[in-house]
Amino acid sequence: MVVVMAADASSADIEAVVARVEGAGGEAFVSRGVQRTIIGLVGDVEQFYALNLRALAGVSQVLRISAAFKLVSSENHPERTTVSVGGVPIGPETFTFIAGPCAVESYEQTLDAAQMAVAAGATLLRGGAYKPRTSPYAFQGLGEDGLKILARVREETGLPVVTEVVDANDVALVAQYADMLQVGTRNMANFALLQAVGALRKPVMLKRGMSSTIQEWLMAAEYIAQRGNLDIVFCERGIRTFETATRNTLDISAVPVIHGLSHLPIIVDPSHSGGRRDLVLPLSRAAMAVGADGIIVDVHPHPELALCDGPQALVDGDLRELATAVRTLPPLLGRTLALRTGAASVLKH
Ligand code: PEP
Ligand code: MN
Fold this sequence. Notes:
Elements: E1 2-5, H1 11-23, E2 27-32, E3 37-42, H2 45-50, E4 59-63, E5 83-85, E6 88-90, E7 94-100, H3 107-119, E8 124-126, H4 144-157, E9 161-164, H5 171-177, E10 180-183, H6 191-198, E11 204-207, H7 214-226, E12 232-236, H8 254-261, E13 266-268, H9 270-274, H10 277-290, E14 294-298, H11 316-332, E15 336-337
Parallel strand pairs: 7-8, 7-14, 7-15, 8-9, 9-10, 10-11, 11-12, 12-13
Antiparallel strand pairs: 1-3, 1-4, 2-3, 5-6
Bound molecules: phosphoenolpyruvate and manganese (II) ion.
Phosphoenolpyruvate is lined by residues 102, 128, 132, 164, 184-185, 207, 237, 269, 272.
């Protein structure tokens, strides 16, 4: 069961609902979204009805939600949510272009990549300081030094930062530096990590597990929402199929399916799905056409020297072509390119 608070509900109103539910032996999880506060109730539904919560001050609706994922469901939440990342919107009106290196390797490499991203029209910077690698012998990322580099590059370019956290114990540290935390494909079902990012007041980008169904993905988001954080952005990054011609198979239909089931935004990662530079532009166009709320793309000043995922990183002409697509296609589909509020001067193209 879910209690939807009125837009003008006070903290005391919210606390009164929580107290009444807890007094009856139930649990109440408060999720403060941009538009309104929702309280998810866990316990005996019939008993909750008897509490007459609808009569309490500041309560707008009391809903019994049939979907297994309650807080992220679009059932009883028809308006689409816009998540703000350091002032850059990700939502239904805009198309958000996130770009940057797969991994933070040095200050110079990250700054160069960020400047490439800005020149191409991106308004958020990606870059991993903690890298979840298949091989323990592969570059694992610079850790906190990498986070410091991202913070310096944000100062320099004005781009808010999206970066991955791989361990629940690192969440507080990564949150000090990041504007949005990324939970990667290998961690989509790491429930301790999901709960830890759920306790933050920072947006989370939740990548789809490479072998996960859409239902499992929604339930993973529910773990984050249930701990109080409704600022979640889904990211479709390709799934494992029998096909070996591409690194993963981009499940483009996940975009309208998620839009039908959840009020949260969804973006596409054409770099990790195709795994090949030549596929990034066509897959990005497909993402725009299918209605994605944005894309997240690997760029690198010297892909041949990249410590991680060089073959899929864009540079030069490929990136210029993507920049053209990002500028021209979203307006045809009724969206504007997402800018940071008050930072229009960052974009000069
Ligand atoms: C990444 O975006 O750097 C990454 C590791 O992606 P994924 O979790 O989708 O493999
Ligand atoms: Mn990568």
